[in-house]
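Complex record, two chains
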Amino acid sequence: MIKTKAYAAQNEKTPLAPWDFERREVGPHDVQFDILYCGVCHSDLSQVTNEWFPGLFPMVPGHEIVGRVVKVGEHVKNFKVGDLAGTGCVVDSCQVCENCKQNMEQYCLEVRTFTYNNLGRDGMPTYGGYSNTIVVREEFVLHISDKLDLAAVAPLLCAGITTYSPLRLWKVGKGHKLAVLGLGGLGHMAVKFGIAFGAEVTVLSTSPKKEEDAKKLGAHHFLVTTDPEQLAAARGAFDFILDTVSAEHDINMYLSLLRTHGVHICVGLPPKPAEISVFSLTGGSKILTGSGMGGIKETQEMLDYCAENNIVSEIELIDIRDIQKAYDRMHKGDVRYRFVIDMASL
Amino acid sequence: MIKTKAYAAQNEKTPLAPWDFERREVGPHDVQFDILYCGVCHSDLSQVTNEWFPGLFPMVPGHEIVGRVVKVGEHVKNFKVGDLAGTGCVVDSCQVCENCKQNMEQYCLEVRTFTYNNLGRDGMPTYGGYSNTIVVREEFVLHISDKLDLAAVAPLLCAGITTYSPLRLWKVGKGHKLAVLGLGGLGHMAVKFGIAFGAEVTVLSTSPKKEEDAKKLGAHHFLVTTDPEQLAAARGAFDFILDTVSAEHDINMYLSLLRTHGVHICVGLPPKPAEISVFSLTGGSKILTGSGMGGIKETQEMLDYCAENNIVSEIELIDIRDIQKAYDRMHKGDVRYRFVIDMASL
């Protein structure tokens, strides 16, 4: 077994604190890499506080993980010691179901193991990236380019792929008007990808203060959703809305901003159900959909695309001892745009 | 002005009763046809009782209207006296907006006049098909084949096009597993179209008693949604669900029956918002959409398709004096599958 240092929550009420545990030995198909950086996703906060469902404790959050390979199993073909490596939200799937065969491991129909707060096929709990090292089955390890700032790459493993995947699925690009709802970790990546794919990007926000930030990120337009006049003027304006908001919000209002046959894509995960009037959908054949993460092949494609196009997350690097402070700020929306833990501080 | 006999509700609490009013004179672009049959749509009941929103009273419901032309305006080109004619849910639109130009008059971005319970561009209320004659702008009058039972054609003008249109939009056909939720006026038409388009059709119903009916209509399978075993076996089974239910129901449960990227299409109109968990959408990228009626060009295409393929509604012909009894039975779901008023009884 591999002695591992981490930060964990012992239950949903205690703050994260140092905790040691053991990871499995490196199996023949496993890659072990030492973690250099780990992004702090809003879902870390949701899970560690049982906002979605009762979690498995002790919990070591973190699924935006990058580092350097220190050991590989004897059958591992695509990684060697010294390589940069990354892991996102999923560390195992059946590999044989219809969805896995179509490179949608995140929607595996049999088993699907999340990077933390889950049980693996061996029945053991999984522990995430707020730790110094990790052992992952080769098929779920990503290659990371050395061209980009490694700390700023970490958030691509969740915030990046979660926004990239639906924009690709719906073929968002030139000629499309894309609205990005919420300008946080996911939202700012959606703006970057939307622009890279050629769409005309509008940031929708309740806060007029974010206009400057939105423009800095390259957004073409900014719309304050609390201003009735701006809202009225935008009725039917957008082909797509990418909704990154994890707090309660009125989706019906946003559906009214879509053109006929327009698509509202949820990637944020509010804990409570949304109240959707069927009239909001039938009037103009609006489409409401959601998307979860992305498959491994697509995640690699996204990482390669980012390396080619010089796309990374905007980050604030933190010491792991400041993780609770970071959670508090994230809870208040005070982050531009992703906290990333420098794991050297562990 | 044209003296017109009708059945109307004087307010949301009174039963329908005889009422006389005047329709506009036949203008240069108008067609007047005497109404032979009018279907009874669930939305007639919803509107006459203010279930959706406060209505305009006196209200003459009815938007599944067929009859024979008795007068045409001087500029009318496509209809002559003696022709069979029909009108559905919409009797006017701007004709120049982006949606109208794309033959989606039902989603007109400027003005859109419903056949009843609405104000026309002249500011006058519209009155529907529970009446002996109607005057409609030529562009909103449909040609009706004499090959089919005219009374059974009437429901095609709403129940028919409302189910035909989304099935065509989503290209439902061979190789697809289509579930039809609810076996009423819309549902039974959805079964007929689904089969005609080559899909494998399953009827979903809370009532095991409907199995025989479903099979008689040609459905390949039947699933009782109150049976947990049948539900569990059907997880991820369907490519499409066409949801015709106007009562409250848990859409999340139905989303779980869709395969990855599967599509749930609402055409029923529950008055209260549905509670949708975003997790139901993100887990498997499910699509929730709605569809309202269809455009005029597509309605004509549907009517022609039905004439070619011998498709009509299953109806129960009633005397207009029994309309309240029919409403009571419809409210209880006791109709196979559409009441049609024989207007000779007016």
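Note: The mean pLDDT of chain A is 96.
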